Amino acid sequence: MIMGDFWILATASLVGVSTALVGVLLILRRMSLLGDAISHSVLLGIVLAYLISGSRSVIAMMIGATLIGLMTAWLSNSLHRLGKLQTDASIGIIFTWFFAMGVILISVYAGQVDLDQDCVLYGEITMVPFDMVIMGEKMLGPRALWLIGGVTLLNLLVVVVAFERFRLVSYHPLLALTLGVNVTFWHYLLMTLVSLTTVASFEAVGAILVVALLVIPASSAYLWARSLKQMMWAAVGYAQSAVLLGYALAAWLDLAIAAAIATLTGLQLLLTIAVMQWRQWWRRRVSFRDRDAYTR
Amino acid sequence: MAFPPLSVQQLSMRYQHNPVLTDVSFEIPCGQTVAILGPNGAGKSTLLKGMMGLVPLMSGRVRFFGDPLAKRQLSIAYVPQREESDWDFPINVMDVVLMGRHGRLRFWQRPTAEDRALATEALAEVKMLAFQDRQISELSGGQQQRVFLARALAQRASLYLMDEPFAGVDMTTERAMTDLFARLKAQDKTIVCVHHDLNTVEAYFDWVILINSRLVDAGPTSKVLTEDNLKKTYGGRLSLLNQMTEKMYRSNIDKVHDDA
């Protein structure tokens, strides 16, 4: 079972890296709700891909999920502009609607679709080692690991190559426009990465808990990071330690692994806030003491 | 004949079906400081955004040096309002100023040594070089404004469009900005500012555009900044206007005394 543990940990760890990277960009663009939305509505994309292609083809699944993810971003923006609804209301309307349709399709075609609702909602990371990619005689590792591995590589590549552009567009989209940068393109590229990341994280952590990994490590990093680069490293660091500790905790107390990981990211955030408050208090005390010493 | 740095013809804009600006036309000369004046909600910032293509126009034509915006994009530096920026973003002063160079870089390129030299020079121009490693969240309002000016300078533009650069800044910053305006003018650059303080218009600006949903008047400050025009623009409801009238009245008295 040692090998099984390794596969589970490796998968969770890569989920942590890829969600932290796109999560940072979402937080800085104040679009964490859109990340939440896409992670839910991709379910519809996955189910539709199953039904249309009639197989568990990874490529069909990725295409379906990305299309539905981009549609979520585009439709909620259009609803906001045309229907004059608030941004958060329009996002809430679109993704719950897509998610509900996905759930209906799963229940209607339960016989044909190799997905069950619990797995979709909560993930089934302990099942990861039982679905191996086999080529000839060789076992090449779990399918979920390959999937998230590929997406992590893609995220890293895009973020490293276009780092400066992402920083400009996240910091000041209007300014970017006046410099001739195609802000819409970078927005939808980010939405594509979010869609791919959430689909690939699906089997490991499920549609609900992936939101925790998208938003919480990046938020903890946002509290103290001094540059975008530092924020990305910090978010990845938070995610990795949550994965390791969460896994250990789950193994020790026999808990649901994904839930334990998500809970730990929340504890990390609380701890970060506490440390920052304490530091602020300490600095103020020191500066008062210095001033007293000076006036005396 | 040289084209004017900025010409606007019959520009109209609306915000959610309500007209904000109607049939605005003007031209500004090269190498001058220009103020866009008008009461709150007159459409000054909207006009600036419309000209920069940040908000769609309903109709009208905007030309920069005789060309549409796309052809001159990098010759025009836009300085947004301070309130429209995210000052909690994890970034330092130098990296913000370097953004002025981004229009010339491909998306995979990093700023070169030359870009850094230009950014350093721009920071020195606004007396902010000592702050280059500071987080933007740790700056005062005036310092933030100077960082944005340096960002625009690093772009090496010919025309500067600034949205309320003098709003809520300290005296040091105000002084640094007027000095900078003088140096830019000497290089034949043109500066257009949305402005709110009627008391400083005469001292800071050569040319004035008065706006209240429509164009009231545009031209050299001495000609356009008259009591009659100000009444038309502000509708006589601003206390500042009274101060202005008083000031003009006093200067007339002085003139009478001088003549006598």
Could you please describe the fold and organization of this structure?
By secondary structure, chain A is mainly α. Chain A has a single domain (2-213), classed as ABC transporter involved in vitamin B12 uptake, BtuC (Orthogonal Bundle). Helices cover 81% and strands 3% of the residues of chain A. Chain A is built from 11 helices and 2 strands. Chain A has helices at 2-28, 32-53, 58-82, 87-108, 117-122, 143-161, 163-171, 173-178, 183-222, 228-253, 257-295; strands spanning 132-135, 138-142. A two-stranded antiparallel ribbon of chain A has the order 1-2. In chain A, helix 9 (183-222) packs across helix 10. Chain B has one domain (6-225): 3-Layer(aba) Sandwich (Rossmann fold), CATH 3.40.50. Chain B has 10 helices and 9 strands. A 6-stranded mixed beta sheet of chain B has the order 5-6-7-3-8-9, with helices on both faces. In chain B, helix 9 runs antiparallel to helix 10. Chain B starts with 5 loop residues before the first strand and ends with a helix. Chains A and B meet through helix 7, helix 8 and helix 10 of A and strand 5 of B.
Give a short synopsis of this structure.
The complex is a heterodimer of chains A (296) and B (260). Chain A contains eleven helices and two strands.
Any chance you could write out the topology, listing elements then pairs?
The complex is a heterodimer of chains A (296) and B (260).
Chain A: H1 2-28, H2 32-53, H3 58-82, H4 87-108, H5 117-122, E1 132-135, E2 138-142, H6 143-161, H7 163-171, H8 173-178, H9 183-222, H10 228-253, H11 257-295
Antiparallel strand pairs in A: 1-2
Helix pairs in contact in A: 1-6, 1-9, 1-10, 2-3, 2-4, 2-9, 3-4, 3-9, 6-9, 9-10, 9-11, 10-11
Chain B: E1 6-15, E2 18-28, E3 33-37, H1 44-51, E4 59-63, H2 69-72, E5 76-79, H3 93-98, H4 113-125, H5 141-154, E6 159-163, H6 171-186, E7 190-194, H7 201-204, E8 207-212, E9 214-220, H8 221-224, H9 227-234, H10 239-259
Parallel strand pairs in B: 3-7, 3-8, 5-6, 6-7
Antiparallel strand pairs in B: 1-2, 1-4, 8-9
Helix pairs in contact in B: 4-5, 5-6, 9-10
